[in-house]
């Protein structure tokens, strides 16, 4: 059975992996540009440029235009969160370090606070699995939808309606070029969503743990005060 500290470090490792994929590097190098950062900026620029072009060229087709706009604003929201986190990487790293140093390293299995650590570390673990499974499941469904459409109806479908200029996706070569590009962009976006959502849950759950420990200490302190008051009110010489 894993300890509370082990669960915490497992969950933190998930965040570290996701942050490396999308180039935020909360727990890595903070003073140099990494290949992942270059990749994510290129991917963002490519996505927004292609989406704007697709919206422009499909302005006479309402359904295709709405599909492109939907993905555009979803990606814009994710990009906004990304650039909001970017200047705060050091603060986030210090916060996660503080959780480990001030909570998980202090309260051992023999302490009265430890059951709280076990409960919340399991909550972290389950939440991480749930968020990761949800988004990876979505990636799988979106990625396999074109295959299902082709096998069942014999028609070519893209993951989302975004074209590459000068490439006809209705041809075999053009379709695979467009499909692979879209799958890569979508996978990067999924990693970003896992990082953003799980990081928010991670901080919130550990914050609640901190509050519960504080409440526990107040409860213990209150009981001690009541005990001392009752003891002081006993008549002298009474047992």
From TrEMBL:
The chain crosses the membrane at residues 38-57, 69-86, 124-148, 175-196. It is a multi-pass membrane protein. One of its GO terms (molecular function) is odorant binding. InterPro entries: 7tm6_olfct_rcpt. It is found in: Membrane. It comes from the Eukaryota. It holds the Pfam family 7tm_6. Keywords: Membrane, Olfaction, Receptor, Sensory transduction, Transducer, Transmembrane, Transmembrane helix. One of its GO terms (cellular component) is membrane. The keyword Kinase does not apply. This is AGAP009704-PA-like protein.
């Amino acid at each position: 059975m894993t300890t509370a500290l082990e669960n915490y470090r497992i969950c933190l490792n998930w965040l570290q992996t996701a942050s490396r994929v999308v180039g935020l590097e909360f727990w890595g190098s903070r003073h140099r540009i990494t290949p992942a950062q270059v990749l994510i900026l290129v991917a963002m620029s490519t996505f927004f440029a292609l989406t704007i072009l697709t919206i422009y060229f499909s302005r006479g087709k309402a359904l295709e235009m709405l599909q492109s706009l939907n993905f555009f604003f979803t990606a814009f929201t994710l990009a906004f969160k990304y650039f909001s986190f970017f200047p705060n990487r050091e603060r986030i790293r210090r916060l996660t370090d503080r959780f480990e140093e001030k909570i998980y390293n202090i309260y051992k299995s023999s302490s009265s606070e430890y059951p709280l650590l076990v409960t919340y570390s399991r909550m972290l673990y389950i939440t991480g699995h749930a968020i990761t499974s949800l988004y990876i499941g979505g990636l799988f469904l979106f990625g396999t939808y074109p295959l299902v459409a082709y096998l069942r109806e014999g028609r070519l479908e893209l993951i989302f309606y975004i074209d590459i200029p000068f490439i006809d996706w209705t041809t075999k070569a053009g379709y695979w070029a467009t499909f692979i590009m879209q799958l890569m962009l979508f996978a990067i976006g999924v990693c970003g969503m896992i990082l953003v959502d799980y990081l928010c849950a991670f901080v919130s759950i550990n914050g609640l743990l901190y509050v519960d420990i504080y409440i526990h200490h107040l409860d213990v302190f209150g009981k001690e005060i009541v005990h001392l008051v009752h003891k002081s009110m006993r008549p002298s010489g009474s047992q």
